[in-house]
């Protein structure tokens, strides 16, 4: 488990998107034996008012933008569940 990467992801997303709730899950254990092993596989569940008026693709772009400094060297795969408050 990459606690440092999880904490860095949390910090970057918190700074960029001021989430109401945020969960970052290291899913690297599900990807043992495939090409991106060791680079980081994460699931981000985030609720933020910053997503208001954004399409699902727009929401993902905001998340990827916030994490750009970690891509692709520290994050190999990223699953995103991005919602606005109340969804």
From TrEMBL:
Pfam families: BolA. InterPro entries: BolA (IPR002634), BolA-like_sf (IPR036065). GO terms for biological process: iron-sulfur cluster assembly. Gene3D superfamilies: BolA-like. Belongs to the BolA/IbaG family. This is BolA protein family transcriptional regulator.
């Amino acid at each position: 488990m990459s606690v440092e990467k999880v904490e860095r992801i949390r910090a970057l997303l918190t700074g960029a998107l001021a989430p109401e709730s945020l969960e970052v899950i290291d899913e690297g254990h599900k990807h043992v034996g495939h090409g991106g092993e060791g680079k980081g596989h994460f699931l981000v569940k985030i609720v933020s008012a910053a997503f208001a008026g954004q399409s699902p693709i727009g929401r993902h772009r905001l998340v990827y933008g916030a994490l750009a400094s970690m891509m692709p060297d520290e994050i190999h795969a990223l699953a995103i569940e991005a919602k606005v408050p109340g969804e």
